[in-house]
Write a structure and sequence with these properties.
seven-stranded parallel beta sheet; 8 helices; about 35% helix; about 15% strand; disordered C terminus; Isochorismatase family protein; Isochorismatase
Length: about 230
């Protein structure tokens, strides 16, 4: 029950999605970047040289660089390999035993975490379930979440919904997320836009980060944390 091969599809565009329901402005001093499940086990399902991945990976790289320049904490979710059945639980009924220890668990080379990045061990679709992610946001005094990664209609969308339910404003990146199919991708973005947050393009996110970076206090003492 490994991840099936994902057929190429053209990236959704912002003008296909509903107008924003909320007037939130992304602020570097209030935000955290979530890079969700960009591990080789999940990314191997895509063809790397065509859309969506050929667009999504460079865009996440650009957003990560902008966040680092603006002093925005960067958080990776990473599922562990060789999960014990008691940890895997009913997730195994849908996806089997999951990742094995080793290459499966590594983040793709373009986005390898560095010593200033935070790694959160993830057990379910949402980054907030069975983790201390909410506490990390509180520790850094952050109440906005930039959501990137895979898969849009599962972990990305549900992390955005959990953020909303924790009074953290999610900003899901249209062209910084990828999915099993274009229809599922559009569905996830549509849901976030209508119910729990905002959807923004990579360009709009970077522009907002650069415009508000002067308000931010650099986290020079931020250390790598593995949870």
């Amino acid at each position: 029950m490994a991840i099936p091969a994902i057929s190429p599809y053209s990236m959704p565009t912002r003008d296909e999605l509903p107008d924003a329901r909320v007037e939130w402005d992304l602020d570097a001093s209030r935000s955290v970047l979530l890079i969700h499940d960009m591990q080789k086990y999940f990314i191997d399902a895509y063809q790397s040289d065509v859309e969506p991945l050929s667009v999504v990976v460079p865009n996440i790289v650009r957003i990560r660089e902008a966040c680092k320049a603006a002093g925005v904490p960067v958080v990776y979710t990473m599922q562990p390999g060789d999960q014990h059945p008691s940890r895997r639980g009913i997730l195994a009924d849908f996806w089997g035993t999951g990742l094995t220890t080793g290459r499966d668990t590594e983040v793709i080379d373009e986005l390898t975490p560095d010593l200033s990045d935070i790694q959160v061990t993830k057990w379910r679709y949402s980054a907030f379930q069975r983790t201390d992610f909410r506490q990390l946001l509180a520790h850094y005094g952050r109440d906005q979440l930039i959501v990137t990664g895979v898969y849009a209609h599962m972990g990305c969308m549900l992390s955005a919904a959990d953020a909303f339910m924790s009074d953290v404003a999610p900003f899901m990146v249209v062209d910084g997320t990828a999915d099993f199919s274009r229809d599922e991708h559009v569905m996830a973005l549509d849901y976030v836009a209508k119910r729990v947050g905002r959807v923004e393009t990579t360009g709009a996110v970077i522009e907002a980060l650069e415009a508000t970076a002067h308000r931010n206090v650099p986290h020079n003492e931020q250390l790598a944390v593995t949870r």
